[in-house]
Design goal:
Blueprint: H1 14-35, H2 45-57, E1 63-68, E2 76-81, H3 84-105, H4 111-134, H5 136-152, H6 159-175, H7 182-206, H8 208-214, H9 219-223, H10 232-257, H11 266-285, H12 287-290
Antiparallel strand pairs: 1-2
Helix pairs in contact: 1-2, 1-3, 2-3, 3-4, 3-5, 4-5, 5-6, 6-7, 7-10, 10-11
InterPro entries: DUF5685
Protein name: DUF5685 family protein
Length: 291
């Protein structure tokens, strides 16, 4: 996950946004306490969404406490407490996916991506080992995704093949929470699958120009003939095609998400899926045209 799963803040009530921030701060605190201070660099909106999803599925009512911010002791923050297992699981996934992304970045042709990965990876070894020991099933899925992604991204691959590893990884991680409930398993699988697919597509669409310049694999670059010298009109056309693919994926995600039975944070989660994701999609794909 890459930080794309955000709420649309203006559409949230004040209490809803405060609840969202409390979970965000709770994951941040858990990252530092369980996986070390450096692991807080991996904190993202995506891990907050996953934490809220876990909390919405489990029949445990979270509490909130006002304490000093762990990153800035000069200010106070509201922390979500009493639900440490869910916060820790979200923190572990954040660490596992960040390390796998850095490992993948080592193979990029972009000089900055390779340098950043090589500098940061040595700092993540301890956190990764601990997260993998805490949740071996998640570590296995994350590792399998990266290995499958490398094989899927070939010049002959279609878009479904390229997006499948990320989609299936998130589908399995979400569906794990269903246990023996076959109906809930199917709903969580579909939700995770199409969210993972959307993340892969939006990341590729967002990186059109960067990947065209560096030569890194990008299905949209190859499919629509984007190059480092492409005109703004050609880039706009490619983004429009990507937008159509994303809208189809979003419709399937929304259909599955509506079937979830959420016990906590339902308004915030609906805001993220129904308003936040479309809003970030619009911002990223059409930012050039709106300048």
């Amino acid at each position: 996950m890459f930080g794309y799963i955000r709420p649309k803040k203006p559409e949230l009530l004040v209490r809803e946004y405060e609840a969202y921030r409390s979970v965000y701060c709770g994951v941040c605190k858990t990252l530092g306490r369980r996986y070390g201070v450096v692991s807080r660099l991996a904190l993202s909106y995506d891990s907050t969404f996953y934490a809220m999803l876990l909390l919405s599925l489990h029949d445990v009512c979270p509490n909130f406490q006002r304490k000093r911010c762990v990153a800035n002791p000069l200010k106070k923050c509201t922390f979500c407490v009493g639900v440490e297992p869910d916060l820790q699981q979200a923190a572990a996934l954040c660490v596992l996916l960040t390390v796998q992304k850095l490992r993948d970045d080592r193979q990029d042709k972009g000089r900055w991506s390779r340098l950043r990965a090589r500098l940061l990876l040595p700092l993540t070894h301890r956190a990764y080992r601990k997260a993998a020991a805490d949740y071996p099933w998640m570590a296995q899925e994350a590792g399998a995704c990266i290995a499958a992604q490398a094989k899927a991204e070939t010049p002959e691959s279609d878009l479904d093949t390229c997006a499948a590893p990320s989609a299936e990884m998130l589908a399995k991680i979400f569906a794990h929470e269903a246990g023996e409930d076959s109906a809930q398993h199917r709903i969580l699988w579909e939700t995770g699958y199409f969210l993972g697919r959307w993340i892969y597509l939006i990341d590729a669409a967002d990186d059109l120009q960067k990947d065209a310049a560096s030569g890194d694999f990008n299905w949209f670059v190859r499919q629509y003939g984007v190059t480092a010298d492409s005109t703004e009109e050609a880039l706009s056309e490619a983004r429009g095609k990507a937008n159509g693919c994303l809208n189809l994926t979003m419709s399937r995600l929304g259909a599955a998400f509506e079937l979830l039975e959420m016990k906590n944070f339902a308004p915030v989660l609906r805001n993220i899926v129904e308003q936040g994701l479309p809003d970030i999609q619009k911002q990223l794909l059409f930012k050039k045209e709106t300048k």
